[in-house]
Design a protein that fits this description.
This protein has helices at residues 3-8, 15-18, 37-42, 47-50, 62-71, 109-150, 159-188, 202-212, 214-219, 240-255, 272-277, 299-303, 317-335, and strands at residues 22-27, 32-35, 76-79, 86-94, 97-103, 198-201, 222-228, 235-238, 261-268, 285-292, 339-345, 349-357. Helices cover 46% and strands 21% of the residues. It contains 13 helices and twelve strands. The strands form three sheets. A five-stranded antiparallel β-sheet has the order 2-1-5-4-3. A five-stranded mixed β-sheet has the order 7-9-10-12-11. With 359 residues, the chain is α+β, with helices and mostly antiparallel strands. The protein has three domains: 3-107, Beta-Lactamase; 112-188; 198-357, 2-Layer Sandwich (Heat Shock Protein 90), CATH 3.30.565.
């Protein structure tokens, strides 16, 4: 076997001298077939010993990490089993096995844990993104066809058939909403989101979100009012689309929680003391509060309201959905480098408060 051809597709390069990294070639069972001098050096052994060993003798959880490195096409962090050392490993699949490249030895353990956690989180979110996208298409078909049948496009239905079709349409529509919010959460957790700043009138944006939901809240006998002081500076520089999504999500949480009452949206300028108490740097901020006396939350509700993973086993599916939506909201607020918190007073009101930079 000509390892030079495998690695460089040429015989004109001395692989031993040309590669600064530690390189190992192993078969699909992990048996080491070839290694360079750098590999023997970082694993503190001889090349002869490497060639009579398996990769699992030197790297913890080796085959799973090789699979992950190939699947996600990126370096993974590996831990030596013979000493307290860590390496970044990339892997390339070849006909007879794998070519493994090791570099950047011994990052700090805390950094390793953080990066492993980040990789796990990314893998989880990539899985959820794919899963929810795959689920959307069939659920959309169920929603669309059941609505068409309810409208009589498939022919006249009996009273019993019409009842069942409406139930199917209602439940599939709720499932579609759940999938959309799960997808939104996965997208906001990827860590790849950045804000696109532009100048806009935040009062106009708030009013447009309220108008978008007008039919829904009027059907439920809910009143929404928007308030701000005369000296309030309406012009802000932020990501208009993210701000709109934040407002829409919180408004949906409120509108789905009760059938009668009032929602007050208040725009203001937070004082320096409040900004400092939230751990935000000094600067210009705008505060948006959405309050209602119709939504009352208990202390247990507040403890997990931004964390759907804490209440995943809750018998109340609405609480899980609410936490998914609000977790997305929290992620979006953090993308804007702001803060969000909830104040709830027993028998009085619940207020969702958001602070975001205005410049």
């Amino acid at each position: 076997m000509n390892i030079k051809k495998i690695l460089f597709k040429t015989t004109d390069i001395d692989v031993e001298k040309a590669l600064p990294d530690a390189v190992i070639m192993c078969n699909t069972d992990g048996k080491i077939l070839w290694a360079n001098d750098a590999a023997a050096e970082i694993f503190e052994t001889s090349k002869m010993h490497l060639l009579t060993s398996e990769i699992s003798d030197f790297i913890d959880n080796s085959m799973n990490l090789i699979t992950n490195a190939i699947t996600f096409n990126r370096a993974v962090i590996t831990k030596s089993v013979i000493k307290e050392a860590y390496f970044y490993m990339t892997a390339k699949q070849i006909e007879d096995g794998y070519v493994l490249d090791f570099r950047d030895a011994q990052p700090e353990p805390a950094e390793v844990n953080r990066r492993v956690g980040d990789e796990t989180s990314r893998d989880k979110n990539n899985f959820l993104l794919k899963l929810t996208n795959d689920l959307k298409s069939p659920v959309q078909s169920i929603v669309g066809f059941s609505q068409a049948m309810a409208d009589g496009l498939g022919g006249t239905l009996s009273e019993q058939q019409s009842k069942y079709i409406k139930i199917i349409n209602k439940n599939s529509s709720e499932l579609m909403y759940f999938i959309d919010k799960l997808l939104e959460l996965s997208q906001t957790e990827t860590g790849d989101n950045t804000a696109e700043y532009k100048t806009f009138d935040i009062t106009s944006l708030v009013n447009s979100v309220v108008r978008f939901n007008e039919q829904f809240y009027k059907d439920k006998e809910i009143k929404i009012s928007v308030k701000y002081d005369e000296e309030f500076n309406k012009v802000v520089s932020s990501d208009e689309e993210i701000v709109k999504n934040i407002l829409q999500d919180i408004l949906e949480v409120l509108l789905k929680s009760f059938d009668m009452g009032e929602i007050i949206i208040n725009l203001s300028l937070p004082d320096e003391e409040l900004i400092k108490s939230k751990g935000l740097p000094a600067g210009s901020y705008v505060m948006i509060s959405l309050a209602s006396s119709a939504l009352l939350l208990s202390e247990s509700d507040l403890n997990a309201i931004f964390d759907p993973y804490k209440i995943a086993e809750s018998p109340n599916r609405k609480n899980v959905l609410r936490a998914i939506v609000l977790a997305s909201v929290k992620n979006m607020v953090q993308i804007l480098k702001g803060d969000i918190w909830i104040e709830s007073q027993i028998l009085k009101s619940t207020s969702f408060n958001i602070i975001i930079p205005s410049k």
